[in-house]
Design goal:
Layout lengths: L1 H20 L3 E2 L5 E2 L11 H8 L1 E11 L16 H4 L3 E4 L5 E5 L12 E9 L9 E7 L12 E8 L3 E10 L2 E11 L3
Length: about 190
């Protein structure tokens, strides 16, 4: 009798283990899927995290739905947009402590400066939004846990060699975007 109970318990545990491996996912259309493939609406936060690792150079920042007369004085509470063009964003895995190295020269640019950042991918829990790249700047002597302000960019596109992120800019009549266009630096 004891062997019979042990066998039933083992079988029950095995069934529960197999059932948990095929956990259901709900797609944006409301349909339930038991496959582990990517939903039709884009990569998951984990897939973005994996794909963002490495070094990226910011080639350009374009204006999308922002009037030419609208002035953007600086971004990320740091410097004008032009100072970021050419910067190298190092996004390693592991502890997600990376950096932004500036390479642009100009009156308000800090050519050669390096900002330490802690980055991650924020998983938006609504069906109508995609994961976002988020980071916060860490200055000498600070601990990331004590820094309460940071920045988020909408992840738009990546094919492993190019990356596009959008920064929403509130306007008087709606919202525009700064579009950040990166290419991966080959090591």
């Amino acid at each position: 009798m004891r062997k019979h109970i042990l066998s039933v318990f083992t079988l029950f545990t095995l069934v529960m283990l197999l059932a948990s491996c095929g956990a259901q996912k709900k797609s944006s259309s409301g349909a339930v899927s038991t496959s582990s493939s990517v939903a039709v609406d884009g990569p998951s936060a984990a897939q973005w995290r994996s794909g963002l690792k490495g070094k990226w150079v910011l080639n350009s920042v374009d204006r999308e739905d922002i009037p030419g007369s609208y002035t953007i004085k600086n971004i990320f509470d740091e410097a004008p947009v032009d100072c970021f063009v050419g910067s190298v964003w190092t996004l390693p895995g592991g502890n997600y402590r990376g950096s932004i190295a500036f390479n642009a020269s100009g009156t308000l640019c800090a050519d050669g400066a390096v900002r330490t950042i802690v980055w991650s991918v924020y998983d938006v829990k609504t069906d109508d939004q995609h994961p976002q790249f988020q980071f916060k700047k860490i200055y000498s002597g600070e601990k990331a846990a004590n820094v309460t302000s940071g920045y988020r960019l909408n992840l738009s596109y990546s094919d492993g060699q190019s990356l596009v992120m959008r920064m929403p800019i509130p306007l008087d009549n709606g919202t525009g975007n700064l579009v950040f266009n990166f290419t991966k630096v080959q090591d």
